[in-house]
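Internal tracking record. Fields below are filled automatically when a chain is submitted to the structure queue. Please do not edit lines marked as system-generated. If the sequence contains nonstandard residues, flag them in the REMARKS field before resubmitting.
Queue: standard
Priority: normal
Entity type: single polypeptide chain
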Amino acid sequence: MGKQFARIEPEHRAFIERQKIFFVASAPPQGRINVSPKGLSSFRVLGDNDVAYLDCTGSGSETRAHLSASDDKRLTIMFCAFEGNPVILRLYGQGRSLMRGTPEYADLVPKFDDMEGARQIVRLSVELVQTSCGMGVPLFDYKQERGSLVRYWTAQGVNNLRKYWGLKNMKSIDGLPTGFAPDSMAPQALTDQV
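SYSTEM-GENERATED OUTPUT FOLLOWS
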């Protein structure tokens, strides 16, 4: 049976901190709903009603576009137990995207492990915590992080990262703008300025 809470309780925090994967769901006022899996030890509980994750560059940026397009900034983050007792935990609330290169990003990024290719921190003001049994979720064994994405962006370097943001991360699949600013997110290398 599902239970609802007004805040992240200590047992919720302990459960969240044990998980290796989480899922982020967002939607614009009209258009496609997006669900993205996340990992890389990038999630942090900042307070009883405050969480955030460091977002590495990917092939799109639906979450940022949806948060920019929506007045209510609705965002849901879900965790599932893939080992041990069956649990599903959802965090509902209002999200904000803190773009790399902004003062808000710089203030919060020390709370995370450094990640090459990071483009934003997504922060959620939690309004509701819901738990349910999760008995339909199968058991899986965790092996390791892939590490491929971080290695890829490390090898590409900041100039190619900026180019990629400009080509692939400026609009959602529905054409909504993300508002990313590649030149301010990562300074141009001296070789670009010659």
